[in-house]
């Protein structure tokens, strides 16, 4: 199998991030989220312009997982200031997205992305890493539990005309 590399993103990665983000979002939520809402969400939240804006924000950290040769995008993670309905402080950071194509689940990519996130957070002086995950995403919830996260709250995540219950999780670093 070709080698997967995880590296910090550059401004030139907006399109790669957009493609892998939309693909993983559709893989995960097709059949859960209405198709029109799914497409609209990917067309806005996961558009190249949205990732270009995130890449230009110095408070964000993005890492891309690519498959050689040719740097095909297979996963990524995004971190930044917390925007969750729980009490936060200056030592907190949110792991906003940690996405991997389903084809690469169970091959160690998720733990490698999580280790990258934890290392980047610690290097930035972060004391607590937060994230939100769909409450019914059993695979993701098991992964986060195995990674040491614990539930500290809930939120409603809005896609289209529907709300979905997310669990807010935290990991003390």
Explain how this protein is built.
The chain has a single domain (4-172), classed as 3-Layer(aba) Sandwich (Aminopeptidase). 34% of the residues lie in helices and 34% in strands. The protein has helices at residues 14-29, 35-44, 48-56, 109-123, 138-146, and strands spanning 4-8, 61-67, 72-80, 92-100, 128-134, 150-159, 162-172. Strands 1-2-3-4-5-7-6 form a seven-stranded mixed beta sheet, sandwiched between helices. The termini are far apart. By secondary structure, it is an alpha+beta fold. The longest helix is centred in the N-terminal third of the chain and has 16 residues, at 14-29. α1 (14-29) packs antiparallel against α2 (35-44) and α1 (14-29) packs across α3 (48-56).
Question: What labels describe this entry?
Answer:
Aminopeptidase; seven-stranded mixed β-sheet; 7 strands; 34% helix; 173 residues
Kindly report the name of the CATH homologous superfamily.
Gcn5-related N-acetyltransferase (GNAT)
Low-confidence parts lasting 5 or more residues at pLDDT below 50? none
User: In order across it, which strands form the biggest sheet?
Assistant: 1-2-3-4-5-7-6
CATH architecture descriptor name: 3-Layer(aba) Sandwich
What is the number of beta strands? Answer: 7
Radius of gyration: 15 Å
Global morphology:
globular
Q: Tally the structural domains.
A: 1
Task: Give the helix level as a range of percent.
Answer: 25-40%
| N/C terminus separation | 33 Å
Text of the CATH class = Alpha Beta
The topology string of helices and strands comes to EHHHEEEHEHEE
CATH topology: Aminopeptidase
Largest sheet: 7 strands, mixed
Assembly type of the chains comes to: single chain
Based on secondary structure, the structural category is alpha+beta
